[in-house]
Write a structure and sequence with these properties.
alpha/beta, eight-stranded mixed β-sheet, about 55% helix, Lipase family protein, transmembrane, membrane
Length: about 800
């Protein structure tokens, strides 16, 4: 759809397009009227009006006191379906996807930018392998190899009886037990592929607005001077919100990687046995299969590294050679590995460490650490070339978040392995030597669990410092607050309440330091755990045997505490998902997490939760372009919180002619405070200044009591007024007055429309969008009275 713009009708048709923030709301609440009508859209995301305002463009005289209000409701994209609570299990994938977008601003550094993206995609690939390896650890190692091979464990878990060597059945040989157990990790990989494909079709397959590039824009309507030319930022490129090609390539590569991990696990166990004893299996078959696995794995890594996103044009192509042949090839190799393992080996018993689980987890941990360090070096190099003062952690925000993604993946995979081992081993403690039946999971998982209490102890100091600093800040604020409100009779409790809210809101700016500290400590402690597991070969409690009672008890306590904490973390994820399935309020809370975390497209990990903005941004830009094109009227897009980020992204997508008829009103906006600092390449000073120049007018309202929103920090330039207005008074009055006989609440992040400044600034934006011209022919000034207008 392209925009053909008409002159505004007589009377100056005006529209306010409201976009809500995190958590969502109803159109009735947004419009302040119980009677609303859907104008365009569907049950997932739609635009609504008051019923009495339908067709208001045909009689603009009815709305001379203000613009017609429309509400865009998009909350069902993130929190409408109870099954989406299970997306919590995909949290590591979502976090590593965020690291891709946290790249520092780059100037003439194309190779470094491509390297940054490739390294993040490799880290994301390692998370897929880690999740699959955890499933293999549970199904192949703990269940099929260890428990099914121990008569005592089988006696306690009768459902494994047909696998027991005591039965002497066909499945009693270890290779055949492993072949059967591959069904579990294979089903997991298949489920992830299915969810990725299904969510793409449901949420991200909407084509964005087919707008012209700035050089191709038609001449603006009479009376509207074109804005100064500007370079189109990344979020304004035609293909930014339509990553079909990359997602399809990554989905094929990650699916193949998961299947190859399963194949390598079962082939490795059989090949290790064949290499130490005389086997009836042809040696050439095993060698060829191993070479094919290496070749296919190399192809997967090449596909992941080779090509990133294509944004400069709307790319509808799909690399059929990759998406069609790579996953089936990996599946064929998995079937070949299953056949190889199921070959009869009468002398093979499941004793000793024949499964390469320890080596696989160690290689993954080491590889992830090296990749994070390389990513940090690339990010620091980019930041050095174009430093920006407010960029998070001097450009190291992306590597820090990538490290957190790896840590979350370790907690989840280690947690499920530890808990399954405890369940299978009955009263014993796996790995401690007192387990009567099984040896337990790899030693490395116990070392990683043991460092978690140490990490928490390290966090006590900075958290204590934050608390002390906040208390001192509250005391310093109190005299200034009383002076600000001119309180003749100060109320100590009221003053302290306002000061506490303001001080707590300021804690948001300390988040980067905490994230950096946690990520750095995790990297070093993880390296220590890897070295300890590698050198000792035993769990921490046994590795320090003979070092003294105090050291032994300390190691035992750290291991036990960490083991239970890592298991508790996994159980907590499952519990939240189960509660959210039944509880609407909990579902909305989890939806808020996705509102913040899934704004960005899936550029690093295809199994991450879907990007709602790939539906919401085209919806908003299409609606604005259609309305301004049909009516020629003035439009204010009014976004709160996360809605302000969607509004800005939609404005960036508009052609110049449509953008010049649009004013931007943001309030409680994290566009600079969070997005500008954490995602500087896309919301840094240069892109926001460009948005200010390209849009007709922009106003941003903020409060000091708001923990999320803040100023956008764009100063007056080129004759354009400053964007920010704030901090707004919150509460509006200090105590009881004739106009406010009841105590006014401290609103913080909510209800900006309650402030009189809101209506004043909206009216000022509409006035600056003028002047209006005489009405054109009636056929050229139709209103948006039906769903087809969207």
């Amino acid at each position: 759809m392209t925009c053909e713009h008409q002159a505004p009708p007589d009377g100056g048709a005006a529209l306010e397009l409201l976009v809500h923030g995190v958590g969502g709301t109803t159109p009735q609440e947004m419009l302040g009227d119980p009677r609303t009508t859907r104008i365009t859209g569907d049950a997932t995301a739609a635009v609504y009006r008051r019923t009495e305002d339908v067709g208001a463009e045909q009689d603009p005289g009815r709305h001379r006191d203000g613009p017609v209000a429309e509400a865009y409701c998009w909350s069902n994209l993130t929190s409408g379906n109870a099954s989406r609570a299970l997306w919590l299990l995909l949290l590591p994938f979502m976090v590593v996807n965020l690291a891709h977008w946290m790249r520092p601003t780059a100037r003439s550094a194309g190779n470094a930018v491509r390297l940054y993206g490739a390294v993040v995609r490799l880290i994301a690939l390692s998370l897929t392998v880690l999740l699959t390896a955890a499933a293999c650890e549970v199904a192949l190692d703990l269940a099929a190899w260890q428990c099914a091979g121990a008569a005592e464990c089988v006696a306690r878990h009768s459902w494994l009886g047909f696998l027991s060597p005591e039965q002497g059945g066909w499945w009693s040989q270890p290779g055949r037990r492993l072949a059967l157990a591959t069904l579990v990790p294979t089903a997991l990989v298949t489920l992830l592929w299915y969810l990725s494909n299904r969510t793409w079709s449901a949420y991200e397959s909407q084509r964005p607005l087919d707008s012209e590039t700035p050089d191709d824009d038609p001449a603006p309507a009479a009376g509207h001077a074109p804005p100064p030319p500007a370079v189109r930022p990344a979020l304004g490129r035609p293909g930014f919100w339509y990553g079909r090609r990359l997602v399809a390539r990554l989905r094929a590569a990650h699916t193949a990687a998961g299947l190859l991990t399963v194949a390598a696990a079962v082939w490795g166990a059989a090949a290790r046995y064949d290499g130490t004893t005389g086997s009836a299996v042809p040696a050439l078959y095993g060698r060829l299969l191993g070479a094919a696995l290496v070749l296919c794995g190399t192809t997967v890594v090449t596909v992941v590294c080779r090509r990133g996103r294509s944004e400069r044009r709307l790319d509808n192509r799909v690399d059929r050679a990759v998406t069609t042949f790579l996953p089936p090839a990996a599946l064929v190799l998995l079937l070949a590995a299953v056949v190889h393992a199921a070959w009869s080996r009468p002398g093979w018993t499941s004793t000793g460490s024949s499964l390469p689980g320890e080596a696989l987890f160690a290689a993954l941990t080491l590889g992830q650490g090296i990749l994070v360090v390389v990513l940090a070096a690339v990010a620091l190099g980019l930041y050095t070339r174009a430093p920006e003062a407010r960029t998070t952690l001097r450009g190291l925000g992306g590597p820090a978040v990538a490290m957190l993604a790896c840590a979350l993946g370790g907690v989840m995979t280690g947690g499920v392995a530890q808990r399954v081992a405890d369940w299978l081993d009955g009263p014993g403690t796996p790995g401690m030597g007192d387990g009567p039946w099984i040896e337990g999971p790899p030693v490395l998982l116990s070392w990683q669990a043991a460092v978690i209490p140490v990490l928490l102890l390290l966090l006590l100091a900075p958290l204590t410092w934050l608390v002390v600093r906040t208390v001192r800040r509250v005391r310093r604020m109190e005299p200034a607050i009383e002076a600000e409100y001119g309180a003749e009779r100060p109320d100590a409790a009221r003053t302290r309440q306002i000061a506490r809210v303001r001080a707590a809101a300021a804690l948001t700016d300390s988040a980067p330091r905490i994230v950096g500290l946690v990520s750095g400590a995790t990297l070093f402690l993880g390296a220590g755990a890897l070295v300890g597991a590698w050198t000792a070969g035993e769990v921490p409690g046994l590795a320090v045997h003979g070092a003294g009672p105090f050291v032994e008890s300390l190691a035992d306590a750290a291991q036990a505490t960490g083991s239970w904490m890592i298991g508790f973390g996994f159980i907590l994820f499952v519990t939240w998902g189960r509660r959210a399935y039944r509880d609407v309020s909990a579902r909305r809370t989890i939806g808020i997490l996705w509102d913040v975390g899934t704004f960005w497209p899936r550029a690093a990990h295809p199994f991450a939760p879907p990007c709602y903005a790939e539906r919401a941004v085209p919806d908003l830009s299409s609606r604005m372009c259609a309305w301004t094109g049909q009516t020629g009227g003035r439009l204010v897009i009014s976004g709160h919180s996360q809605g302000s980020v969607l509004a800005a992204a939609a404005v960036w997508q508009l052609p110049d002619t449509a953008r010049h008829q649009v004013a931007l009103l943001t309030y409680g906006s994290p566009i600079e405070r969070l997005y500008g600092r954490w995602f500087p390449a896309y919301f840094g000073p240069a892109p926001l200044a460009g948005l200010h120049r390209s849009v007709h007018c922009w106003r941003n309202l903020w409060r000091a009591t708001d923990p999320i929103g803040g100023p956008v920090r764009i100063e007056e330039a080129d004759g354009r007024p400053e964007v920010d207005r704030g901090p707004l008074k919150d509460p509006l009055v200090y105590g009881r007055t004739l106009e406010h006989p009841l105590p006014e609440p401290v609103l913080g992040h909510s209800d900006y429309q309650a402030d009189p400044v809101f209506a004043v600034e909206r009216a000022a934006l509409l006035e600056r969008l003028g002047p209006v011209l005489p009405r054109q022919a009636a056929g050229k000034a139709q209103g948006s009275t039906g769903r087809s207008s969207g």
